[in-house]
Amino acid sequence: MSRLEPRLLGIPVPRIGPESVPYWEGTRLGELRFQRCDACGAANFGPGLVCRKCRSRDLTWTRSAGRGEVFSWTVIWRPQTPAFEVPYAPAIVRLDEGYDLLTALVGLDHAEISDGLRVCVEFHEISPEITLPFFAPDPEHR
């Protein structure tokens, strides 16, 4: 059994651009944020200047409940750099609000991952500026 845990030390740190500041401010506060289009109601992620569905510029930052399901994943056994301890499981999580997020799964054995696995967000600080969202099994659906 190989329990998946957050890898925090030495991993590459994302650069914060002006359009993503509200997202990163939210993660530091323990909030997962996304943009909702005021014109058509579509959820938009990652941060952008226009709606991906209707091209409106009327986007509002909204707090996500942080729950969703595993849409796609892989388990890495051979890291690209030594900073990534194996195994780790990058995944696409489809959030209940209707957007997909590339993340990593934690808090379970790699053999427990399956399509549709219900997960919830947990936050881990990797630097004073960056707190990353990871996803663990949702205790309400175990």
Please outline the helices and strands.
Blueprint: E1 3-4, H1 21-28, E2 33-37, E3 43-44, E4 59-63, E5 67-73, E6 89-95, E7 100-105, E8 108-109, E9 118-125, E10 131-137
Antiparallel strand pairs: 1-8, 2-3, 2-4, 5-6, 5-9, 6-7, 9-10
Describe the structure.
The chain is 6% helix and 36% strand. The model has no long low-confidence stretch (mean pLDDT 93). The strands form three sheets. The chain has a five-stranded antiparallel beta sheet. The protein has a three-stranded antiparallel beta sheet with strand order 3-2-4. Strands 1-8 form a two-stranded antiparallel ribbon. The protein has 142 residues and is mainly beta. The protein has a single domain (16-141), classed as OB fold (Dihydrolipoamide Acetyltransferase, E2P), CATH 2.40.50.
| Form type | globular
CATH top-level class? Mainly Beta
- Approximate strand percentage: 35-45%
The CATH topology label is OB fold (Dihydrolipoamide Acetyltransferase, E2P)
Order of helices and strands: EHEEEEEEEEE
- In CATH, the architecture is Beta Barrel
Number of domains: 1
